[in-house]
Amino acid sequence: MNLAATLRTHPQAKWIGLALIAIALLALPFVLAMAGTAWVRITNLAILFVLLSLGLNIVVGFAGLLDLGYIAFYGVGAYVYALLASPHFGLHLPWWTILPIGAAVACLFGVMLGAPTLKLRGDYLAIVTLGFGEIIRIFLNNLSEPFNLTNGPKGIATIDSIKVMGLDFANTTALGDLAVSGTIKYYYFLLAVLVVVIVVNLRLQDSRIGRAWEAIREDEMAARAMGINTTRMKLLAFAMGASFGGVAGGMFSAIQGFISPESFILTESVMVLAMVVLGGMGNIWGVILGAILLSFVPEILRYTVTPLQQWLFGRSIVDPEVIRMLLFGLAMVVMMLVRPAGLLPSAVRKRELAREDG
Amino acid sequence: MDTFLQQIVNGLTVGSVYAVVALGYTMVYGIVQLINFAHGEVVMIGCMVAFSVILALAPMGLPPFIVVGAGIAVAVPACMLVGYAVERVAYRPLRNAPRLAPLITAIGISIVLQHLALLVWSRNFIAFPQIIELKLFHFGSSDTSASISNIQVAIILTSVGMMAGLLWLVYRTRLGIAMRATSQNPQVAGLMGIDVNRVISSTFVIGAGLGAVAGAMVGTYYGIAHYQMGFLLGLKAFSAAVLGGIGNLGGAVLGGILMGLIESLGAGYVGDFTNVCFLDKFLPGFSDVCAASPESSLFGSNYKDVYAFIVLILVLVFRPSGLLGERVGDRA
User: Fold this and answer.
1) A161 belongs to a structural domain
2) The pTM is what?
3) What ipTM did this prediction achieve?
């Protein structure tokens, strides 16, 4: 018997595997920091996108409601944090009170979006959610007059960083000889939140609620006939998805220290959707994979495409940002045509998408 | 009263463009029951191509009518090609797939189109050359009374012409009969000897052609083109199609014109209605704001783009089948 098989059959294999992954994740920022702090920051943003994708996955993947305005909840969460912890209103609440408030407000917005659209399905819902996302963005952009709520397109700056027991996440701390930068501290913070969110998602998927969502996704009428309160379940999906978005938004605010409506445009919604679709709608691990891929590949492109072009043509012809978006678009098309269930398809979803009749 | 009349004229102009774009959405929806998400981008490409041709021809001193006509003449086939490609890539392979699948490919296609346009025409706003001499026809005797410009007249007339042409096509030609048959039941239409694939392709192509003209018109009207213009325009036109009842040609026209009017009257009046300065005697905070600008209102004309969405949401909540549409049941 070879080693791999021994490991696979070993009763403790699962725990050993998890421990190895945990060690790798804990060591990751220091390895990345050797390549440059920028990569740690990119990793942090990637984790934020994983959080967002997991939130959207609840709405799109579990409940089958296509939401194209998801970034609005991220924006709401970010603005709640920014307004309650910045000099803009002179409020400086601690982060552990604001994140729940942000989640609650985003949840409220989720219900606001969900309630009027309960009867809609598929493409109609997509358009309405898209419109909703735009409405939020337009309001964020314009609510500087007559009363300055959001500071308009200028955005809100000098947002408080996260502080845990006197430890300010914005600064570098020295641990003996080891300098732990703020970015690395945020990495651990995000990682902790991510673990919680993943566990919640896994438990949710297998719960009564998760199964109800799945039933609604497969056949709403049959689900209702089986006694599922579809209204409540769909609202719950919107609300839960939105509150995950809100939490991610709050952390985005804290990490960046500056937000403006520019960060919450439709492109971002589409990007998160592309992550969910690419990874495999409804499969938590697939969605995580999709988010990580689509967060890192463009960054790697950024570092390779421009030098490559300069080497080939002597100047940069195509902006890496454009290539990134082209790639997103193509990924969505190709995935739907070739592997509609995603890279790591969920078992049920795969069956559904392979079905011949619509 | 003059302002009101002026807003009506502006609303009708924009509304007729929305109507033409909405026709593209509604035709495709009528035949395959899917929203062509990439239609807004097709309109944008129409505008861009037309602008490129117009910019190239502008210095030659030809009459503006011919220059703009040439722009449209190039834009229409270009967009038809794009429309055909969109159908082949994003819709045909997924015709029997669940509804989420073609929707996602269409979103992907529209991102690709948008960024291809960005590569070709750059990130900058493209300005329309000064070749058309603006003439205003006043409704009253004074120079300040409401007026309609020659461009507005041309846009409204072109739109009406295209709508008439489309109606003729759908109700008086063999292709039109085939389209209506396919929209009622593709299987049976196929059994009757209709090449369903060809009919669906031509629907996309015709819609794209209409979109190209609409793009050129909207570009000429606002005097500016941008690679992101298709998104909002498409969304408003889609809202118009839903307002009128999607799948219904007359509904698209009615919805488009209503949408134009709502937007222009909304931009003109909602600001006045939500003026907060009458409150300054009662609430302390208001006096400073209103002293600075007595026009302070909660929702000024910068909220213009919100009205379309609000209308869309209201229609879908209270009358999902639209003003003229039939009950679409499970489709909605």
Assistant:
1) yes
2) 0.82
3) 0.77
